[in-house]
Amino acid sequence: MTKRAAAFAIPGDITTVTGGYIYERRLLEELRALGHDVAHLQLGASFPDPTPADMAHAVEALQALDPARALILDGLVYGSIDPDGLAGVTAPIVAMIHHPLALETGLSPSRRAHLFETERTNLVLAAHVLVPSSHTAHILRTEYEVPSEKITIARPGTEQPTAGRAPSDPPLILSVGIQHPRKGHDVLLRALAALTDLDWRAVIVGSVHDAAHAADLARLQADLGLRGRVDLAGRIPQAQLEELYRQASLFALATRYEGYGMVFDEALARGLPIVSCATGAVPHTVPDGAGLLVPVDAPDDLARAVKRLLTDTDLRHRMGEVAAKAGAALPTWQQTAAIAGQVLDHLDGSGP
Known about the structure:
This protein has 352 residues and is α/β, with parallel strands linked by helices. It has 14 helices and twelve strands. Strand 4 (93-96), helix 5 (109-123) and strand 5 (128-131) form a beta-alpha-beta unit. The two termini are 22 Å apart.
């Protein structure tokens, strides 16, 4: 079968260090490595709150695509682009939905309703939908009325570590996630503030998504007296992050929602027990026995879970072994791209 050519439309800088951008950059690279002719179409960075200029450019660029190419369209654009403009696209559309935009943290009711209706309307126009998890697939089926046969799960790939673990003393608690309210770093800080009688250090790695929220986190860190115990590291080089993974004794992320959560796979691949929240795709991503999940926005529960792993060495080791076994079985990026490539190759070109 001839490999289907495609255009992958992604807003802003493709090198942005978030799970969604990493997923799409690796998918683009691996589809090309498998022999697909995939063009990268950069759209305006303002999506999912597009400026008029970015909206106009996106509609014009997508409508100008050769219908012989499939269009893979990033979810930040897919859930917010004008439905009338998207309806004018003649290329068969593959929606890349990491998680529906209406599920983002901190939205007003009117904004949530607008995004929900826009995304649901636009999903009717998709020839197919790629999602990273069974959780997102379930939401699209049950809440957005997307037929099951139009949805394919392409779980993110994972790079296996090349170096062994070297846990530090005192134990290192590692958290990785952008400085965004949805990641719950404020909850983690409050939980850690209840554990200052124990011996540990913590590093929170992640780019600043919103300057005001980052400033709030820094103030909270100071108010809780954690500046000497917790490092709000921001974005760091990959080699430095790898070293932190080697040194860590456990991984903690107090997320309020995840459509998948690639950092959990990174932690599993490195044999780290996980403390997080039972929300979104997290219970499906973190295997039973590999971690402790608590309710969202529950710093006391989170503190108790972290304390269990810090103080019970046997439990920490058992959970680390379960994590390592699950991590070794995770798909590669080549396998993820092969699934997406099959979707492209089987499109009939006739649209939805």
